[in-house]
Structure formats: structure tokens, C-alpha cells
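Thread: "does anyone have the structure for this chain?"

Original post by V.I.:
We have the sequence but no experimental structure in hand. Need at least a predicted one for the grant figures.
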Amino acid sequence: MHRTPARRTVIAATALGLALASAPAVAQAHGTENTNTPVKVSLTVQGPDGLLFKGKIRTRGHEVTTAGGGTHKCDGTNGGAHPTAVPTPTAALDDAARKRHFTWDGTWYASFDDFLVERIKNVSGGSAAYWNISVNGASTPVGGCQFKLNAGDKVAFTWTAF
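Reply from O.Q.:
Generated one for you, C-alpha cells below.
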């Protein structure tokens, strides 16, 4: 059987068209991966007089509500830090507080699109100290709602005198 060049062109064009039509769908599905999958981290809260909390917490980015700051997203998209939601240190603190029944508070600063943690378990930084946030031993270079956590990270909120 003899195929004409026109028929081969139609078949090739159809195959190419199908391939191109499926390419954007594949790219789009890949680009919308869930980056806010819950992760388990170790969380430590160290006050001026000793350990206030230590435990493993499963967390992901979410809205956070504090008495002093109101309700705001705390999912890594804050300040344009990440294009999609991710687990964050402040979300981990919030999850630990809810699950382990302790309180924390922070002021929301719209200019930073983040909370400033001011009190954990009734221990306040006040004018003499602040709550430093570190991950794996290094202070975070951005706020606690902007830093991306990974599974196994060691998160610490440490009362730090000025």
C-alpha cells in the first residue's frame, strides 16, 4: 500500500498537535504541586529561666490569630517570600500552642507582612529582650511567617536579651 505525502503530513501534524495540546496541562500540573505539605519539626522554646517547651510538631503554613495581632496568613507567601504556601516557624509555634495548650501573642506589622512574637507562655520580651527565631541553629534572615521549614528542621524560639 502506498501512502501519499499529504496523508503523512496530516498524521504528523495531528501527532504534533496532540503532543503540544498535552504539554501545557503537564506543565501546569507540575507547577501547582502542593508545597504546603505538613512536615514534622522539632520545636524548642527557651525562656530566660529555662525550657518552656520542647517537642515534635507537625505543621504547615496557615492563618494565625493572636490577641494583639488579629488573624493573618502565615504561610510563607508573606512579603512575597515564596510563590506558594509552605510550612513556617510561626505556624509551627501556633500549632504547638494549640495542641499543647499554651499561649503566645504577637503584634502584626503590615509593613513587614509578618508577626513579631512578643509573648510565649506568659514570658514577654518587653523592652529588655525579644524572641529570636532560629532554624537548625541559625537565626532566620526573614520573619517567622516567611521562612520555609523542611521535614526534620530544628526550630527554636529563644528569649534573647538586648
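V.I.: this helps a lot. Residues 5-31 form the longest helix (27 residues).
O.Q.: and The CA atoms of residues 103 and 122 lie 7 Å apart.
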